[in-house]
Amino acid sequence: MSSTTPKTKAAALARVQALVAGTKQHFPNGSFTLGNAAYTSESLVQKLQLLVDAMQKANAAEISAKDLRKAQRDTAAQVDPLIADYQRFLLAAFATATPTLADFGMQPPKARKPLPADKRAAATAKMRATRKARGTTSKKKKLAVKGDVTGVTVTPVTQPATASPTPLASSAPGAPPAPPK
User: Fold this and answer.
1) Per-residue pLDDT at 148
2) What's the start-to-end Cα distance of the chain, in Å?
3) pLDDT at 179
4) In degrees, to the nearest 5, what angle opens at C-alpha 135 toward C-alphas 129 and 141?
5) Fewest Cβ atoms closer than 10 Å to its Cβ: which of 45, 69, 72, 146?
6) Backbone angles phi, psi at 45, to 5 degrees
7) Tally of structural domains, the chain
8) Residue 106 in 3-state DSSP?
9) 181 neighbors 164 (Cβ within 8 angstroms)
10) pLDDT score recorded for residue 84
């Protein structure tokens, strides 16, 4: 048996439970001196059982916390759109009443600051250069672009498809397929 610690909580719990079971089975009335302290089998099993109980309670608490976090996420997913709609309503209703919005814990939206002329000109030039590099065009120019297809022959199907499958496994490679029955 190795003295390394288990890598999972379940393995650690199983290890302690196995120690309890083994002690009860092989040393029902034994006495031990471990780390300068004397223990009877009963007192040792009690100490180990305390650890088992604590581990099981911690696992139950983690599972409960996971369930609670999931419930919180589910509830938030339902209520968040309602909150967003309500905040938009409040902003529309009290856009100029800053103290009223403050009562709701909100601030009025900041006024949009226009770009200076030099930055706006640079942004426009960059946009036009990007469109030219990508070859993007307007909607009307896209409508004028038509593709030509050459060298394609379309053969119409005149015979309806058969409902019964043809046995392919019985035919040899290279042989023509068997006619439908």
Assistant:
1) 72
2) 70
3) 60
4) 115
5) 146
6) -65, -35
7) 1
8) coil
9) yes
10) 94
Give the separation between CA 13 and CA 54, rounded to whole angstroms.
10
Consecutive 10-residue runs of the chain (181 residues): their mean pLDDT? Answer: 72 91 88 87 91 94 95 95 93 89 88 90 91 84 76 75 58 58 58
**What pTM value is reported for the model?**
0.46
Q: What are the tokens at 102?
A: 């403050």
Longest pairwise C-alpha distance within the chain: 97
Residue 33's pLDDT is 86
Q: Which domain holds residue 33?
A: 9-93
Tokens coding 172: 């040899």
Domain annotation covers residue 143: no
Tokens (6 digits) for 121 = 């000109």
Pairwise CA distance, residues 63 & 9, whole Å: 13
- Give the CA distances from residue 64 to residues 10, 14, 88, 137, in Å, rounded to whole numbers and listed in that order: 17, 21, 36, 57
Give a yes or no: residue 171 inside a domain.
no
108 domain residue, yes or no: no
Q: Nearest 5°: CA angle at 59, between 10 and 42?
A: 70
The pLDDT value given to residue 178: 60
